[in-house]
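Q: Given only this backbone (175 positions), what sequence would you predict?
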């Protein structure tokens, strides 16, 4: 997730205080990982430095004085460009799962046990996603679907790798 671009997008919607940006980010994008206030303000500082946002005058509030940030034309162009670019197709060919299996084989460890443990971890996470999908939030359900589809692909890979483990072990031994 690109925090600066997400904040710019929220600011294109309407000028906001840092506190409001954090709240909206956490509501829409921070599922399970809220954005620290320090990161919000340091990101806004960099965006202001780069001419992508402007900070208004300090305003009194319920707590410390607050500034309302607004997106600039440069920032709006960056959001437009970002939204028009597709996300890189994943996964990459070199994954942590693959690396662990090959290293386990190289080191004489039980790669099949690792794959079994990984399968159990994926299945546990899928159950968590299924629970999320039973909730009322469409956004949460769509994010859970995305996660489940990736886990399903990993599980298929785990099954195929487990079936080919002897051949991979031989390849690793002879390399």
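A: Predicted residues:
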């Amino acid at each position: 997730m690109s925090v600066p671009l997400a904040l710019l997008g929220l600011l294109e919607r309407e000028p906001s205080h840092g506190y409001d940006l954090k709240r909206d980010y956490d509501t829409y994008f921070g599922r399970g990982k809220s954005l620290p206030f320090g990161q919000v303000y340091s990101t806004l500082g960099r965006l202001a430095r780069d001419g992508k946002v402007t900070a208004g005058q300090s305003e009194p509030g319920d707590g410390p004085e607050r500034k309302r940030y607004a997106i600039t034309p440069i920032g709006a162009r960056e959001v437009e460009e970002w939204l028009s670019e597709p996300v890189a197709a994943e996964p990459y060919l070199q994954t942590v799962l693959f690396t662990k299996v090959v290293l386990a084989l190289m080191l004489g460890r039980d790669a099949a046990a690792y794959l079994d443990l990984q399968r159990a971890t994926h299945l546990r996470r899928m159950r968590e996603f299924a629970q999320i999908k039973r909730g009322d939030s469409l956004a949460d359900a769509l994010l859970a679907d995305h996660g489940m589809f990736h886990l399903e692909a990993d599980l298929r890979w785990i099954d195929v790798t487990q079936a080919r483990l002897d051949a991979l072990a031989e390849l690793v031994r002879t390399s």
